[in-house]
Design a protein that fits this description.
The complex is a heterodimer of chains A (292) and B (322). Chain A has 292 residues and is mostly helical. Chain A is built from 10 helices and 2 strands, in the order ααααββαααααα. Chain A has a two-stranded antiparallel ribbon. Classes of the chains: A mainly alpha (292), B mainly alpha (322). The interface between A and B is large, with 43 and 40 residues.
């Protein structure tokens, strides 16, 4: 019982917290993939830019909350400009070119951040400290906030995609962009705004996780691999699958840490993915023929 | 068709001229040891890019895990050299064994899937290998295997100078180019192009598509791995950083710079990339921005790569198929 409360429960919560944040990241990746057929290699860099933009805004205003609003908007704007200038010309070309293009973007963003903010590790102080007694243990307040905020965001995104006209348009574009175009919808604008939204979500995840992790130019590289695994596991193009897979990976990651050193955990996660893909080649919710 | 004609179809006279002029490159007055090593890297990574082009350009499969093949070859070679077995042939044989076994597993699982799944599966497998070597102290952990002796060929002739290394890699490039050309001009190569153009149609014509994809994957991996096996002879080390997935990305950049599906193009692309990195990084420390921008501009404006320039200028069309 002591073990359960002192060791297992905190790890379980850590896993949920991490899974929820990972879900925000993977969701943007999935939607962009569904829309443009492009696995966005620069997504991790947008996540990283979110954290740095947060540091910049906090430096100017001394408020984490203002940063939480301004940084995602700024990164979203960067995303919109990027989409219009580089991805839009590639719409009718092989998705391969888009994939390679985003790899180039990732290099530029990563190195740009290193030039602007330097290569050393940075931290953001959490906006509030202290911890709350919970089920016989105490848990940091900020992590509880992180879990609540990410869960609420995921819920809001779900409502957006099911209840609003804009969200339904995005889903329609994932399904069949040509048909949507034929129905008179400005599809390129849908693409651009979705890309911007996905960038803003990534930035938000980056800033939310920054007080828990450290901020450095390569921080996106590790996260993007996990996010890729999540998207594959969930099934390409399935948003619900991505969120579920994010929680699975988040929990697996934090629970496995109890019994293995971090390197082994990384290998174990890869192994889990490979096994699941052998058993279920399209992940949890992937449909046959989607982007294959 | 006479045999002389078919030999011309495999190796263009122009390729022979370029290769023979490369033989004379070290005779140029400014070719110091530094430039010889730079030329070694240019040709070595050019060869790797060419091997990747078999997959990307001819079969339409994008591998994001070629760094693992390269790194495994380098490690295999370094492990053999570290044990005091200084024969180049032993290094190459062990590299073939190790890379071959790994490539068998990867290609079996990865070629069962198409498009983006293939790219991501190769990436994940490569990350497993990277993580394994990065954290296994037997193989030096993050430092890798350092200070290995130079390999020898034919008894006591050691490949221990930049000049000898340069000629070794030049010979390797020539043999690999020949092998790849034979491959893509053969029936096998035509099936690969058919798979790239329309996989279902190739299957309906009765070809076992997955077997072809596995075969080309293995060949590409082995050419890359053998290239990796030459690396410790030049640098005396093998480190896990050789296997980072960003290195795989660099290989893809080389192929794109050179032009998909041309074999010769990626060799030029690899050499261009190595020289660009060297030149730019000696002036500014933000050369990754330059390289990223070059990649973006090429994707946007020159999808056929450097060899496509002539087409832009209205020259003869470069043939993308064999």
């Amino acid at each position: 019982m002591d073990y359960l409360v002192a060791v297992l429960l905190p790890q379980l919560l850590h896993g949920l917290v991490f899974g929820a944040a990972l879900g925000l990241l993977a969701l943007g990746l999935t939607v962009v993939f569904g829309l443009l057929g492009v696995m966005n290699f620069a997504h991790g860099e947008l996540y990283m830019l979110g954290a740095y933009a947060g540091i910049a805004v906090i430096g100017a205003t001394h408020s984490f909350w203002i940063a939480l609003v301004v940084a995602p908007l700024a990164v979203g704007a960067v995303g919109a400009v990027t989409e219009v200038t580089t991805l839009r010309p590639l719409y009718r070309r092989e998705p391969l070119y888009g994939l390679i293009l985003t790899f180039g973007l990732a290099l530029v963003f990563r190195e740009g951040a290193r030039q602007i903010w330097g290569g050393d590790m940075r931290r953001i102080a959490p906006p509030f400290t202290g911890s709350t007694p919970l089920l016989g243990m105490t848990y940091p307040n900020y992590r509880l906030f992180l879990l609540a905020a990410s869960s609420l965001l995921l819920l809001a995104i779900w409502l957006f995609f099911t209840k609003t006209r804009a969200g339904i348009l995005v889903r329609a574009a994932v399904q069949d962009a040509e048909m949507l175009d034929g129905l008179g919808v400005n599809v390129p604008r849908v693409f651009t705004l979705t890309f911007a939204g996905s960038a803003a979500l990534a930035a938000l995840a980056g800033l939310l996780l920054a007080p828990v992790f450290t901020v450095y130019p390569q921080m996106g590289v590790e996260m993007i691999l996990l996010a890729f695994i999540v998207v594959i596991l969930g099934g390409m193009g399935s948003m619900g699958g991505s969120v579920i897979a994010a929680f699975v990976i988040g929990l697996a990651q934090s629970l496995l840490t109890l019994w293995m050193n971090p390197q082994r955990v990384a290998i174990a996660i890869f192994a889990i993915m490979i096994v699941i893909l052998i058993l279920r080649p399209r992940g949890f919710f992937g449909r046959e023929g989607v982007l294959e | 068709m006479s045999s002389a004609l078919s030999a011309r179809a495999v190796i263009a006279p122009r390729a022979l001229i370029v290769w023979f002029s490369l033989l004379l490159l070290p005779a140029l007055p400014f070719m110091s040891k530094f430039y010889l090593l730079l030329a070694f890297d240019a040709l070595l990574f050019g060869t790797v890019a060419m091997a990747l082009d078999l997959l990307m350009g001819y079969t339409g499969l994008v591998s994001f895990g070629h760094a693992a093949f390269f790194g495994l070859g380098a490690y295999a070679s370094a492990i053999v050299l570290e044990r005091g077995i200084v024969s180049l042939w032993a290094c190459l044989a062990f590299a073939v064994l190790v890379v071959g076994l790994y490539a068998l597993v990867v290609s079996f699982f990865a070629t069962a899937r198409r498009g983006i799944y293939f790219a991501l599966l190769t990436l994940i497998f490569a990350e497993v290998v990277y993580t394994f070597f990065r954290y296994t102290q037997t193989f030096g952990g993050s430092d890798g295997i350092q200070g290995v002796p130079s390999p020898r060929v034919l008894g006591e002739f050691a490949i221990d100078t930049p000049l000898r290394n340069y000629y070794l890699v030049l010979v390797y490039l020539g043999l690999a180019y020949l092998a790849c050309r034979v491959l893509v001009t053969s029936h096998f190569g035509r099936v690969l192009v058919a798979i790239r153009e329309n996989e279902d149609r190739a299957r309906f014509l009765g070809y076992n598509v997955q077997r072809y994809k596995m075969a080309v994957c293995m060949i590409s991996a082995l050419v890359t791995g053998l290239g990796g096996a030459l690396y410790p002879g030049r640098s005396a080390f093998a480190t896990p950083d050789l296997m980072l997935w960003t290195v795989s990305g660099e290989f893809i950049i080389m192929v794109m710079i050179g032009g998909l599906g041309t074999l010769a193009g990626p060799v030029v692309g690899g050499a261009f990339f190595v020289l660009l990195q060297e030149k730019v990084s000696s002036y500014v420390d933000w050369y990754f921005i330059v390289i990223g921008l070059v990649l973006i501009l090429i994707v946007l404006f020159m999808p056929r790569g450097l060899l496509g320039i002539r087409e832009l200028l209205g020259g003869r069309r470069w043939r993308t198929t064999a």
